[in-house]
Amino acid sequence: MKTTLRTDITVADICDGFVYNQLEGKGLFGLGGKLTIQPEYQRNYIYADGGGKKEQAVIQSLLKGYPLGLIYFNKVGQDKFEVLDGQQRITSIGRFVTNKFAIMDNGNPKIFDSLPADQQAKIRDSRLLIYECEGTESEIKQWFETINIAGVPLNAQELLNAIYSGSFVTLAKAEFSNSQNANIQKWSAYVKGSANRQEFLERALDWVSKGDIGGYLSAHRHDNNINQLKTYFNSVIDWVSTVFIDVLPEMRGLEWGRLYEEYHSKSYDPAKVSADVKRLYADPYVKKRSGVFEYILGGLQDKKLLDVRVFDEATKRSVYAAQTTAAEASSTSNCPLCAVGHGANESKIWKFAEMDADHVSAWSKGGGSSAENCQMLCITHNRAKGNR
Ligand SMILES: [Zn+2]
Questions:
Q1: 354 alpha carbon – ligand 1 mean position (Å)
Q2: Where are the extended beta strands (E) located within the chain?
Q3: Distance 375 CA to ligand 1 centre (A)
Q4: What is the pTM (predicted TM-score) of this model?
Q5: Rounded average pLDDT per 10-residue block, the chain, 388 residues
Q6: What is the 288 CA–ligand 1 centroid distance (Å)?
Q7: Distance from Cα 24 to the centre of ligand 1, integer Å
């Protein structure tokens, strides 16, 4: 890879013909049309996120004469460049110079046009440190894969988008990484993250590929449609929202793709499901509400999913003491199930550490975790009972 350091390019040059497209993921241009600021493998603009602190900091740095760090261009043709690293910084500058946001000046918001002429000139005349790189596509991409962009490292999906850039990723981003997509709100009930950071795209790919996102992108890289990806994702979302008519915060980020695969061929009565959800949410013994959905889909069997509240140590110790005293008096085992058996342990006194607490009346049938519903069983009997 060949690199050339350029120190002659100013902010005014870069912002010549700057285009900012509100629909992220679209091309942004500068340098009088010679520079593509957002090639298809680049990430969406994220410096305006979180109140715009980052884009403000870029402008304050220019005004104070602080260095903005290195910017890398990929030379893709005679007088044609793409931004390899520095897209966020350049977009911040271009957006400011075209009055898209204001900086705070002694508590007053100031857009570019309202700055005094000397400050406008200071920004326009700032020189940027730019490396122009020339190399093969794989050299550039490999290098791109190893760098971090201005303090916000690429996440896994942004990296994959860069590695497998092409028609498929472009179409997929237009659908799943576009924060203007009207479906985002519905998706957000079930999928965590933001469109800008590619998290909806990542989930959609994860579901359709059963976890092999890289393999899927590689196989579909040059496809001219995303029909399968879109259909599968919508099937999962439609299924969840049909089975569970309630939308609850704990539904966000669950493994809906896996649950869809496991359970979508079964039929559920949404009214009964809703009643079960409400009952389990109201149950003080259910510690893990995010497990409620899979517990219901699986037919209310696997209570491990709910992390049901267990007996506390003091309760276990006092029940153990009472059982052991009574057992010693009658020369039987302190495990009530051993005591009624006819095996070698019929009269065995187990140590506390050799026993575990059991709900006499099962939690799933309404039994609580108080001392009255607690019995200590030897570990073997406790396991055997727990599995029923
Ligand atoms: Zn026993």
A1: 10
A2: 2-6, 29-30, 35-36, 71-77, 80-85, 103-105, 108-110, 130-134, 355-359, 374-378
A3: 11
A4: 0.60
A5: 82 91 67 85 71 88 84 88 87 92 87 93 91 80 60 71 85 92 94 91 96 89 96 97 96 96 96 96 90 96 85 92 95 94 90 92 74 90 72
A6: 30
A7: 65
